[in-house]
Amino acid sequence: MKSVWLRKEGSGELILFFNGWGMDHHIASHLLADSLSAGFSHDLLVCYDYRLLEPEEGFIDSISRYGKVTLIAWSFGVWAASQIELPPLEGAIAINGTLQPVNDDKGIRPEVFQATLSSYSEENRHRFNRRMCGSRQALALFESMAPDRTALDQQEELARLQEILQSGSETTSVSWHFTHALIGGRDLVFPSQQQYNAWHGVPQTIIAEMAHFPFFHFRTFQELLACIRV
């Protein structure tokens, strides 16, 4: 797992952002810019690239110094975050992802996951991104913050995730838990019904028009934090 500090100004509050599969820090950078314009004052640490799940050296110590830590995780980042024992959290938001990411009832159906992995290429990446975004406007926004990664290393990450899930070696015993789920009604990657199933008993906000890419609807970290302050 890679992690990058995008803001480290000595705030007592930290946003820990676990990005989705195949991403890097660019989405978080874009959100941060808009958030700062709206008065955002938290520090921000973004995590991505789960070919290795282990945090980098010093990761836990650095986030444990904060008085308040809020986790925001998107897509496969929801599961990746759940593999790490974190310090006590102020809240934890899962966005269009589940703790069983490849599952007939609570995640991506295994045959769909396998088809994506087997056929992934530069051409199919563009098709996947269109499906992920759901509209031309959302795709244009995503392309303005698209990751600086090749289709090959994205495919390698997906294959590594499959290997971990199939080996049964993932962690299931962390002490913290997600406190809110944001579910897109038009998610074609993690279908909304699978998300409903996965988050039974967890407070949910359902955005009927939201596709898998949620940052067309949520443009700042403040908007995301508001979901757990209702």
Can you offer a commentary on this structure?
The protein is an alpha/beta fold. The chain is 36% helix and 17% strand. It has a single domain, classed as Alpha/Beta hydrolase fold, catalytic domain (Rossmann fold, 3-Layer(aba) Sandwich). It contains 9 helices and 7 strands, in the order E-E-H-E-H-E-H-E-H-H-H-H-E-H-E-H. Strand 6, helix 8 and strand 7 form a beta-alpha-beta unit. Helix 5 crosses helix 6 (136-143). The longest helix has 17 residues, at 151-167. The mean pLDDT is 96.
Pick out its properties.
Rossmann fold; alpha/beta; 9 helices; seven-stranded mixed beta sheet; 230 residues
Reconstruct the topology from this structure.
Elements: E1 2-7, E2 13-18, H1 26-37, E3 43-48, H2 59-64, E4 68-74, H3 76-81, E5 91-95, H4 110-119, H5 122-133, H6 136-143, H7 151-167, E6 180-184, H8 192-198, E7 204-207, H9 221-225
Parallel strand pairs: 2-3, 2-4, 4-5, 5-6, 6-7
Antiparallel strand pairs: 1-3
Helix pairs in contact: 5-6
List SSEs in N-to-C order: EEHEHEHEHHHHEHEH
Give the helix tally.
9
**Rg over alpha carbons:** 16 Å
What is the straight-line distance between the termini? 32 Å
Question: Helices and strands: which structural class?
Answer: alpha/beta
Looking at the structure, what is the overall shape?
A: globular
Produce a short descriptive summary.
With 230 residues, this protein is an alpha/beta fold.
